């Protein structure tokens, strides 16, 4: 099962876990209710996993995908790109990542604006709603390979915080105030 915890705001290496002292773990169901972040564990090597992913893609309208690898060996301008994705930002569309190999951390803001770190490993599929403040970093393994899923061709553009005036952020806050009931 996925691991989530509240993190400190320390300035040490972003690739570390950054647990509070003592550690304070977060509950996935509560985080889902507060943030709208969705999670699935899908085994890519089983028939059930393949069927689950296909159904999820169909149900949510994901009709475009690509593969992304982040490592010093595979990503041009690695240092700049890693710095950019670790800068707090939003997107106008959902961010969907299915981890195929490696590991890393998605940091999201809870309803009280505290950072929650989500460790992702192979088989984890995470959906961040449009308008949620978040960031991503590799862990100390410095490698992740993900399948990125999209509705139509991607228009992947990050809007750094503050982005309160953007429609995607306003819509997100409205949904958050209602408790993400659909």
UniProtKB/TrEMBL annotation:
Q: In which pathway does it act?
A: Amino-acid biosynthesis; L-methionine biosynthesis via salvage pathway; L-methionine from S-methyl-5-thio-alpha-D-ribose 1-phosphate: step 5/6
Topological relation to the membrane, as annotated: Peripheral membrane protein
* SUPFAM superfamilies cross-referenced by the UniProt entry: RmlC-like cupins
Name the Gene Ontology molecular function terms of this record.
Answer: acireductone dioxygenase (Ni2+-requiring) activity; acireductone dioxygenase [iron(II)-requiring] activity; iron ion binding; nickel cation binding
Biological process terms from the Gene Ontology for this record are:
L-methionine salvage from methylthioadenosine
Compartments (UniProt record): Cell membrane; Cytoplasm; Nucleus
Q: Which cofactors are required for activity?
A: Fe(2+); Ni(2+)
Reactions catalysed: 1,2-dihydroxy-5-(methylsulfanyl)pent-1-en-3-one + O2 = 4-methylsulfanyl-2-oxobutanoate + formate + 2 H(+); 1,2-dihydroxy-5-(methylsulfanyl)pent-1-en-3-one + O2 = 3-(methylsulfanyl)propanoate + CO + formate + 2 H(+)
Residues at which Ni(2+) binds: 89, 91, 95, 134
Q: What EC identifiers does the entry list?
A: 1.13.11.54, 1.13.11.53
State where Fe(2+) binds.
89, 91, 95, 134
- The main location class comes to membrane
Keywords on record: Amino-acid biosynthesis, Cytoplasm, Dioxygenase, Iron, Metal-binding, Methionine biosynthesis, Nickel, Nucleus, Oxidoreductase
Q: Which family does it belong to?
A: Belongs to the acireductone dioxygenase (ARD) family.
Q: What does this protein do?
A: Catalyzes 2 different reactions between oxygen and the acireductone 1,2-dihydroxy-3-keto-5-methylthiopentene (DHK-MTPene) depending upon the metal bound in the active site. Fe-containing acireductone dioxygenase (Fe-ARD) produces formate and 2-keto-4-methylthiobutyrate (KMTB), the alpha-ketoacid precursor of methionine in the methionine recycle pathway. Ni-containing acireductone dioxygenase (Ni-ARD) produces methylthiopropionate, carbon monoxide and formate, and does not lie on the methionine recycle pathway.
Q: What is this protein called?
A: Acireductone dioxygenase
Which organism's genome codes for this protein?
Meganyctiphanes norvegica
Q: What is the lineage of its organism?
A: Eukaryota, Metazoa, Ecdysozoa, Arthropoda, Crustacea
């Amino acid at each position: 099962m996925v691991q989530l915890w509240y993190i400190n705001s320390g300035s040490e290496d972003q690739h570390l876990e950054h647990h509070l002292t003592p550690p304070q773990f977060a509950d996935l169901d509560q985080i889902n209710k507060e943030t709208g972040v969705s999670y699935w564990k899908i085994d890519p090597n089983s028939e059930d996993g393949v069927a689950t992913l296909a159904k999820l893609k169909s149900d949510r309208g994901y009709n475009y995908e690509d593969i992304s690898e982040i490592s010093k060996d595979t990503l041009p301008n690695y240092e700049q790109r890693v710095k950019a994705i670790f800068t707090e930002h939003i997107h106008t569309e959902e961010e969907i990542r299915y981890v195929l190999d490696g590991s890393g951390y998605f940091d999201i803001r809870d309803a009280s604006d505290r950072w929650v770190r989500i460790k992702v490993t192979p088989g984890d599929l995470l959906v961040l709603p449009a308008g949620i403040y978040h960031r991503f970093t590799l862990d100390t393994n410095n490698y992740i390979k993900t399948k990125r899923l999209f509705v139509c061709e991607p228009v992947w553009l990050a809007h750094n915080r503050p982005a309160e005036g953007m429609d995607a952020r306003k819509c997100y806050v409205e949904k958050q105030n209602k408790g993400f009931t659909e």
